[in-house]
Amino acid sequence: MENEPAITLITDPAFCRHDTGGGDHPEAPERMQVITDRLMQGHLAGRIRTFAPRPATRAQLLTFHTEGWLFRFEEAVLSGRTYIDHPDNQVGYESFDIATLSAGAGLVGVDRIERQPGTVVFCQTRPPGHHAEPNQPYGFCFFNNCVIAARYWQQEYSRRRVCVFDFDAHHGNGIQTAFEQEADTAYISIHEHPSFSYPGTGWAEDKGVGPGKGTILNLPLPPGAGAEQVLRLFPKIRNFLDTIRPDALIVGAGFDAHRQDDMSGLAFTVDLYRRLGNFVTELARDYTQGRVLSILEGGYFLEKLGVCVEAYLSGLVETDE
Amino acid sequence: MFIHDHMTPSPVTVTPEQTVAEAIDILQRYNIRHLPVVDEQGVLQGILSDRDLRSARPSTVAQSKERGTVEEKVNKTPVSVLMTRDCLFLVPHATLDDALLLFQSRKIGALPVVNEEEKVVGVFTTADLMNAYRDLFGLGAKGSVLVSIEDNQDPQALSKLVRIMEEKQVQFTRLVRAEGTDKRRAMIYLRINTYNVRSVHKALEADGFVVHVPQKTP
């Protein structure tokens, strides 16, 4: 159909070149391939337009990260180190450049949304970003893609009030670090309860600090939680957004809460990702005049990652109503 | 484990001659609930809690005429009248266990910390104790997860767990064996630093350990 909204996919074959050492590291290059295969062979294939990212500039990375971290990261990979700070954070020779490109995907997405409001954009990137802290990598993340995109949206387009909604199975500690003391930005995270899951942050009691009080909404779920528990959170998220009144929405779209994904104890279904897509589109319609950007975070069960992403994108473009 | 590492040093104090009104003002300004009372040399004379101050003031439901008079009188009273004399205290090299036992047996919320000359050098509260145990146990430490393992009473259980962690190259920071009680099963707690929590669970289960996670919904 002519009126069917297209999906703008921002990705690059180079994302496969962030080398996490092979073996059984879950954040593997194959993640990109399974998503691409599914999207290009599935029912959305005809509606997807693919665009290349551009690397984030040093100044753009510095909107969240420290100069010290940039030097340390670059030096570590060039000197042949295989991981930084913790064996989880595997790197290869090209990882700095690829992480810079991954951080830049969101910027291209923001540009496209601003050029044509209502554009559905999904950044299919790796390495992921939401655990990355200003001066430290955490949990496979090196640059905080969501935060860097949020800063860009604020600075380039004066969308001051940016809210990140993160449904990855893990709490995005780096995003909370970035936003928790600010009045303009907000962070909503659905994740497995920190007592049972990495990174051990994301307590419901954390609601923001100082001027940022009330801008953090952590919604931890017990292991085993699935659609029923998640759907019950939707009204809470709406109530929160009623007070936040965001200008733009960024979605940290992680798919590791799928019931077969070993990286969390959550039990999301493929259909729940479709419903999350519906919900995100409704939020964008009701709160941000359609300004919404989705960026891939986790999702490690290769047999289901592709269909989960496809279901989410279907949900974004096909609302229930 | 020592109080001097966890106390609030150089705390706010009052002298015995200062008034109740001044003490109330200090508690409110610093958002604290306990004030050591010291003489001019800083030697401990007693301790004053917000409860001591509250109970000395007239009830808010008292007759308005009397209330004003009584309140004025109380406000001008020196704190020496209300403070607890001969109060308990800690010394800087006392341990967290000492404090815990005192807090529990005497049902108190704070203790002054005094040096050899009986001068006040700190205050240690139940909140400080919670923070200290939080740090010791690593609760909420970024990048870590606590794994709860049933204690199978194997005398070698701890060394086996360490070996599994080393083989899997998983960093860990705490290994605690907690005896059981009538109400609670004996457990071993392991705080690990890895993203891949489930692979640790699987490795432990493969070696016969039972990992506790809340019941999954069907």
UniProtKB/TrEMBL annotation, chain A:
A UniProt-annotated Pfam family: Hist_deacetyl
InterPro entries the UniProt entry points to: HDACs (IPR000286), His_deacetylse_dom (IPR023801), His_deacetylse_dom_sf (IPR037138), Ureohydrolase_dom_sf (IPR023696)
Membrane-crossing segments per the record: none
Xref: Gene3D superfamilies: Histone deacetylase domain (3.40.800.20)
GO MF assignments: histone deacetylase activity
Entry superkingdom: Bacteria
Domain Histone deacetylase: from-to ranges: 25-315
BP GO annotations: epigenetic regulation of gene expression
The family this protein is said to belong to: Belongs to the histone deacetylase family.
Official protein name in the record: Histone deacetylase superfamily
Organism field: Desulfobulbus propionicus (strain ATCC 33891 / DSM 2032 / VKM B-1956 / 1pr3)
Species classification: Bacteria, Pseudomonadati, Thermodesulfobacteriota, Desulfobulbia, Desulfobulbales
From TrEMBL, chain B:
Top-level taxon: Bacteria
Gene3D superfamilies, per database record: CBS-domain
Domain CBS per the UniProt entry, residue ranges: 7-64, 83-142
PROSITE patterns on file: CBS
InterPro entries recorded: CBS_dom (IPR000644), CBS_dom_sf (IPR046342), Diverse_CBS-Domain (IPR051257)
SUPFAM superfamilies given in the database record: CBS-domain pair
A Pfam family hit: CBS
Protein keywords: CBS domain
Keyword Transcription attached: no
PANTHER family, A to Z: CBS DOMAIN-CONTAINING PROTEIN (PTHR43080:SF2), CBS DOMAIN-CONTAINING PROTEIN CBSX3, MITOCHONDRIAL (PTHR43080)
Protein's UniProt name: CBS domain containing membrane protein
Native organism: Desulfobulbus propionicus (strain ATCC 33891 / DSM 2032 / VKM B-1956 / 1pr3)
